[in-house]
Amino acid sequence: MKKLFFVSALALFMTSCATLSTQVGTAGLYTQVKSGEGITSNQVGTKVGTASAVNVLGLVATGDASIQTAANLAGIKKISHIDSEKMNILGLYSTYKVFVYGE
Amino acid sequence: MHKIILFIFLLFPSFLFAQNINNKYKMRQTDEGTLFFILPYKIPSCAPKQKELKVDVTYLSSRDSITINATLISKDEITLDSICFLYSDHKTINKPQLLFIQRKSNNWIYRFGFKLPYIDIKRAYENESSFKLTIYSKQNQFCYQFGDSKWEKSKKWMNQILHLIDLNSR
Lengths: 103, 170
Known about the structure:
The structure holds 2 protein chains of 2 kinds.
Chain A: H1 2-15, E1 21-22, E2 25-26, E3 30-39, E4 47-56, E5 60-63, H2 67-74, E6 79-89, E7 93-102
Antiparallel strand pairs in A: 1-2, 3-6, 4-5, 4-7, 6-7
Chain B: H1 2-19, E1 25-30, E2 33-43, E3 53-60, E4 65-74, E5 80-87, E6 90-94, E7 97-104, E8 107-117, H2 118-126, E9 132-137, E10 141-145, H3 148-169
């Protein structure tokens, strides 16, 4: 009975944990996926800006991973394309990073 | 015993990242050559109460300089004046190019960029002791430098990236 309760509690806890969905699905154990978020007709730029957000234990999620912030940090005025990177360890810690390229 | 196994299991990803420089840089082909972007990292302050300087580095193979974008956090409002990059006896003085100023909580956040010759960053990271970055404002000066242990770690991964840059620039 105790075991059943523990497994149920763990399952309930894990449903709201720090997992991230990716283009190749959601992984509970370990995730590290890079993907493209968007592209424009502008020429591939020589400036790169990045911004990130983090989730700890599915309880605290903070950060500013907006495209606007990443572009501002590198002084990008014309965006050529946007990449992202999602990382998750055991559903306990996850990060989302956005990379903005442009001029 | 179970606790030890669990501890090692949870600690494993940190070892994985510590050895992997792929998480520290991005490489992309552009019309102007190969673009390298070294992800943001922190340079500790020389003054105990001052916050670290967060920097990222961009290098384009067709140019002989790197661009460093930095975020400085100050308690007081300042007017940025110049940046001094010092390693061994070599000194480079630059004018910062201001990107933006923000106000967050009780701090002033200054985001600016400056350029350094590629050879300077390469030689600085070959050095035994850390380079020193001093940012002068009209009101104050801010000094940043790695401590010995952090310098050794930083040097290790940065030199691997710089080696990759050299190989790709041939």
